[in-house]
């Protein structure tokens, strides 16, 4: 690419960087968000429903479900790693939009397979397939939003999409409570739960996964409308297409009655890229250094996240709670998760990225200790809300931070290395934690769970770099 074309590329990027607000139709945020609603529905729907799966499909009592959950979650997260590492680089080669279609198709097939699984092996395989789709999808979604969002509000719009994720988690847990647990007086359960009636008594969990497949199909149909990322088009030398999209973005901002700021200084993007996007990360000292602390941060933090997100109901059942009680504690706790989206949307761009890890860790410790110490159901409900808020509040900000930390030519690949391999921490951690659940008292069990999050926060606070309000090509040339 000649100097004049590189100058043109830098000018187009600079025009994007000056945009003061979201410059696409807001329907595109909804389209991406609906897809994320499904992915988190699938992550969280196993939390409550797995007890019924274990009883009706694997023929074990509720108190013995936790050890069976660990390998299933690990299988799902191994699939996540495979999908993230194998498919995400394709996004750096074939485009963000095309890859978003492929990932959702894989996820839909996995969830449909889950609905018809007939033994432990097929259930495990279905979760593995679903993980492949989810792993790649989350990497591409967060890369895409980060590349098209305004410089000053990248965390805001990633957090807005994450709000749909919290709704997916809410639906996953509450529909599981409704369809797979027997009725019980509140707060010890859900009085109108259907899990003791007819088909719901044995196959409520299958209906859960069928709902997930339906949501994924809706996501596929909607994503056809998404525009491509101009930054990715520029990285491939497709200047005319990129400029057309940026011009449309500028017109959209002007129609909102906002004045376009002056074009900032031009930073020429690096146009020459390797055919293997991972080499752009692994052979560059700057990006390798970032990988060296972001990866262990994600690995340790995900141990805490998935122990609670996928296993809280099973863990509580293992330490003596009844199935309805454990389910209601998880279901009420997810309200804390729902609060994450609005709080991160409002304040995510006001505090430097790495400090959110410290905030999340502190709240996770408080919530975990409350749940671990007390056996009073009402206090446990409050502790669960704090716990869910704490172990999730940092996630959309860290998504933003990780995507910012790698260049456009390998941004999805860089995100995948951290988020993808990091999920192995979640899988291995869940296997260990669910095994410990049958031998440790509650306080020690939750002490172990929150410790991983604390260590992850220390790593981020000590070693993390600053990206707030900086342009992408300045952070990651």
From TrEMBL:
It is found in: Membrane. One of its GO terms (molecular function) is transmembrane transporter activity. Pfam families: Sugar_tr. Signal peptide: none annotated. The keyword Membrane applies. The keyword Glycosyltransferase does not apply. Residues 28-468 form the Major facilitator superfamily (MFS) profile domain. It comes from the Archaea. It is a multi-pass membrane protein. Keywords: Membrane, Transmembrane, Transmembrane helix, Transport. One of its GO terms (cellular component) is membrane. InterPro entries: MFS_dom, MFS_sugar_transport-like, MFS_trans_sf, Sugar_transporter_CS. The chain crosses the membrane at residues 26-48, 68-87, 99-118, 124-145, 157-179, 207-226, 291-316, 328-348, 355-375, 381-401, 421-440, 446-468. This is MFS transporter. The lineage of its organism: Archaea, Thermoproteota, Thermoprotei, Sulfolobales, Sulfolobaceae.
């Amino acid at each position: 690419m000649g100097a004049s074309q590189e100058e043109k590329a830098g000018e187009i990027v600079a025009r994007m960087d000056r945009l003061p607000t979201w410059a696409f139709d807001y329907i595109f945020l909804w389209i991406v968000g609906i897809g994320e609603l499904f992915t988190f529905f699938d992550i969280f729907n196993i939390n409550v429903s797995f007890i019924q799966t274990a009883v009706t499909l694997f023929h074990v009592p509720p108190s013995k479900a936790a050890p069976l959950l660990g390998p299933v979650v690990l299988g799902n997260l191994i699939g996540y790693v495979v999908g993230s590492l194998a498919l995400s680089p394709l996004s750096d080669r074939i485009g963000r939009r095309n890859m978003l279609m492929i990932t959702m198709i894989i996820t839909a097939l996995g969830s449909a397979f889950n609905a018809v699984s007939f033994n432990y092996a097929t259930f495990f395989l279905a979760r593995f397939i679903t993980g492949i789709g989810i792993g790649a999808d989350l990497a591409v979604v967060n890369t895409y939003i980060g590349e098209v969002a305004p410089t000053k509000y990248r965390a805001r719009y990633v957090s807005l999409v994450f709000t749909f994720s919290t709704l997916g988690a809410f639906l996953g847990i509450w529909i599981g409570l409704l369809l797979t647990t027997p009725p019980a007086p509140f707060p010890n359960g859900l009085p109108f739960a259907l899990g003791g009636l007819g088909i719901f008594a044995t196959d409520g969990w299958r209906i859960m996964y069928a709902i997930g497949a339906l949501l994924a199909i809706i996501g596929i149909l909607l994503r056809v409308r998404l525009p491509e990322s101009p930054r990715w088009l520029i990285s491939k030398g497709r200047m005319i297409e990129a400029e057309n999209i940026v011009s449309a973005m500028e017109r959209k901002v002007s129609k909102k009655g906002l004045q376009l700021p002056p074009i900032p200084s031009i930073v020429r993007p690096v146009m020459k890229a390797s055919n293997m996007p991972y080499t752009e990360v692994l052979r560059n000292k700057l990006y390798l250094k970032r990988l060296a602390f972001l990866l262990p941060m994600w690995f340790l933090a995900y141990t805490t996240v998935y122990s609670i997100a996928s296993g809280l109901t099973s863990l509580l059942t293992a330490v003596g709670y009844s199935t309805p009680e454990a389910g209601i504690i998880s279901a009420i706790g997810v309200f804390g998760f729902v609060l994450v989206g609005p709080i991160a949307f409002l304040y995510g761009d006001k505090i430097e990225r790495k400090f959110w890890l410290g905030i999340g860790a502190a709240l996770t410790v408080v919530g975990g200790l409350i749940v671990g110490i007390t056996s009073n159901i009402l206090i446990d409900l409050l502790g669960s809300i704090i716990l869910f808020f704490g172990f999730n509040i940092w996630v959309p900000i860290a998504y933003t931070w990780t995507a910012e930390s790698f260049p456009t030519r390998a941004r999805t690949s860089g995100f995948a290395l951290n988020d993808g391999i990091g999920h192995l921490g979640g899988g291995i951690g869940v296997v260990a934690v669910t095994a410990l659940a049958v031998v440790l008292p509650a306080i020690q069990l939750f002490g172990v769970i929150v410790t991983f999050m604390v260590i992850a926060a220390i790593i981020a606070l000590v070693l993390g770099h600053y990206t707030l309000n900086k342009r992408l090509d300045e952070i990651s040339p």
